[in-house]
Amino acid sequence: MTPGVYDVAVVGAGIVGAACADECSQAGLSVVVIDSGVVGGGATAAGMGHIVVMDDSEAQFALTHFSRRLWSELAPDLPDAAEYDVCGTIWVAADEEEMQEVERKRSSYLEHGVHVETLNGVALSEAEPHLRRGLAGGLSVPGDAVTYSPAVARFLVERARSRGAVLKSDQSVEELTNDGPRLADGSLIAAGVTINATGSWAPMLARGLEVQKRKGHLVITDRYPGFVRHQLVELGYLKSAHSLTSDSVAFNVQPRRTGQVLIGSSRQYGNEESGVDATMLGRMLDRAAEYMPDLPRLSAIRAWSGFRAATPDKLPFIGPCPEKERVFLATGHEGLGITTSLGTAKLIVDQLLNRRSEIPTAPYLPSRMSQSKREFAQ
Amino acid sequence: MSETVTLSVNGQSVAVPASSMVSAAIAVSRVSHFRSSIKGERRGAICGMGICFECRVTIDGEAHQRSCQTPCREGMVVMTGEDYSDSYGRPRTIRRTTRTCDVLVVGSGPAGLAAAWAASKSGSRVTVIDDNQAPGGQIWRSESKARASSDSAKWFERVRQAKIDTVKGGRVFDASQTGRVLAETTDGVVEILYQSLILATGARERFLPFPGWSLPNVCGAGGLQALVKSGLPIEGKRVVVAGSGPLLLAVADYLRKRGADLVMIAEQAALRSLLRFSLGLLSSPKKMVQAVGLKRRLAGVKYLTGCWPVAAEGNEELERVTLRQNQRTWKVSCDFLACGFHLVPNLEIALLLGCELNNNAVRVDRFQETSIENVFCAGEATGIGGLELSLVEGQIAGFAATNQRHLAEQHIVEKEKLRGFTSLLNRTFELRDELRALPNAETIVCRCEDVSWAELQQQSNWRSAKLHTRCGMGPCQGRVCGAAIEFLLGWGMESVRPPIFPVRLSSLSQFTNK
């Protein structure tokens, strides 16, 4: 280690950057974390904080499952403010067609060793009395959890700092070089490796990176303890959430430890304005009301929006930039950034230290994209 | 004796005059505890005007209703404390309406009434919306039946004759789109389309946190007055009025007329500032007369300057206050502490629209127009200046918004003169540095989320405080802690976005182009 030079510079102190800083410092590396604002202030603050196993693809399953285990290992160390709660997810099936999807999902999860239970209509309404009558059933995933992500990001950064890491907040990074990040004032923070963990802003520091902003909205209510008990997501979410072109909404509500209800979700491309889009918000709330008819009577306290970092193949970029080998990417997590932050950090450090990873790293390597692009260019 | 209505509070039957708010019925039934805070503290109403959300109770099965803004109805069922069991309200139809007008006036205090009247002179269609059930704002609250010779009666009558469209009990929650305002009412949601907008959103009290300030029966100065006007019985109660500003005298005078046992008035400003202020009043004979009248009526009431409360104590509600003057501190027994540290403008709607500010007030030109075309602002929201200035500014705004600039012109000289008084007022009642030392580590600063002073001091700015302590993230949306934090830590207000007031979820999706 050269004096005055960090082993690792993490750019972005959202939950992904915070997890990377924590993991690097744990491995004995010297770390600097730089953020243009405060810790956990971007998508980390805007998102729901749902820790969920998803099975859109084998690679997505591997990363979310691995990460969820890391969360349960981290849980005993988390501060109270992290509000970590293993409330479980229920995937809600509206009709028999969706019940078939429940069955498919059930066998896929069980095959991979994830505990799940099928709920029929009666069991579903017992589990969640405020859901509308007549729903077909659902799939309960008891090991899923919710958390207050900004508090986790802060905890991880503080833990890294207790091992000597340095935090530079309110500092804009202009450029990422192989020798470290260059700040807006022109100065270089010398680092052996730089990690771009700036979420949907990553392309500003990695030209041509195929990460798009995908806008989302959330609303939070006043306190109504017990109104919702599990994270509830409609199975139709699978149909709507992954359409890459059109705007979509889905029923997705979360119980907060405070008794508040967090209501989502919406997905929008091509709207980079940071304000709330009333039309999307309205569609989202109407969708939620279809599933929970009592919801419209609750008092809403705040509404906000944020940007997910979406990639063309719905998998994150975790690994070295093809063009700059000492700049790593840790972005493109779309709606799974909170869940997969911990897994991402492990995979990054494994690569830095040439350690063998618990899950295959190839599906997330950034080179998977640029390869096809370069071939095309030639 | 006026008509009474009978309602149930925590299972007990209570009869109150028909004009009372639910907050009064709760007080009459000897409940001082409206809600339990998230850390389990007992809380009571403080602002009396619908902004602090501390008086939230469950009304007819609907949780989180502001009792100070809800009129009592026969047979109403009110539950205080933390009973959420199935308190999601009865299913009901939400009425959705659209109104169209030339000029929309937000606020029906003196500035709003004057603006509406002036605008109506042009023949324009004028709509006035206010969160309260009756016109008059805070200063003329419950004066609709005042004696005919009073200022308020004159303006109420003018507006009545002008046949102005009014939306009562309507709280604006979105004004981000030019030309349109969305508001929630008791039974529905209303969209108002306008050509010109006049913001007469008034002011609220600045509260400062000190140990014990979150005990029930510690309220604002204007806050206690508003609660009494809404029916809170005050006769024979021992009241300490404290804080800062000319409002303290007016409140003391009012409470005394209503039979309160006024223990003392404690004004934090130093005597020498107040003497300078009195000299300043010589240039304003009308204010001088008012001041002399007030002083005479309050003769015999102890009035201490350079004196402020440093702690409030009590078992489950307020029992005594510790006051400080110079180096001396002492305790005074009382039933109520009415404590407010002057006023701060209500800026939420102006900020949503993007109006520029100046010294934490809306910046306006001589015709009261803001930096946004066709958006005017009058009264306290342009800087705390008192009743007369509000009336003058309201008229200027009303005339100017309706192409009657020649009429607006006639009031400009008077306005400039009264504005001079404003700066005198603000200099006189400037808060002393010692007040920054009022909270101790455990003192709650954000009452919605129970954030302590120690927790806040670890943060470096508002954004960080919001994210990591939830300060300002509760239903009052920083209306109480915001002004305190600005004074204590110097953090300016963060961004404002809709909904600027808590609303039913259904209201958020009523007027979208789906």
Written account of the structure:
The complex is a heterodimer of chains A (378) and B (514). With 378 residues, chain A is an alpha/beta fold. Helices cover 31% and strands 27% of the residues of chain A. Chain A has 10 helices and 18 strands. In chain A, helix 3 crosses helix 9. The relative contact order of chain A is 0.19. Chain B is of the alpha/beta class. In chain B, 27% of the residues lie in helices and 25% in strands. In chain B, helix 2 runs parallel beside helix 3, helix 2 packs parallel to helix 9 and helix 6 packs antiparallel against helix 11. The model of chain B has no long low-confidence stretch (mean pLDDT 92). The interface between A and B is large, with 45 and 39 residues. Strand 16 of chain A pairs antiparallel with strand 31 of chain B, so a sheet runs across the interface.
**Radius of gyration computed on alpha carbons of chain B:** 22 Å
Main sheet characteristics of chain A? 8 strands, mixed
Query: How many β-strand runs of chain A?
Result: 18
- End-to-end Cα distance of chain B: 52 Å
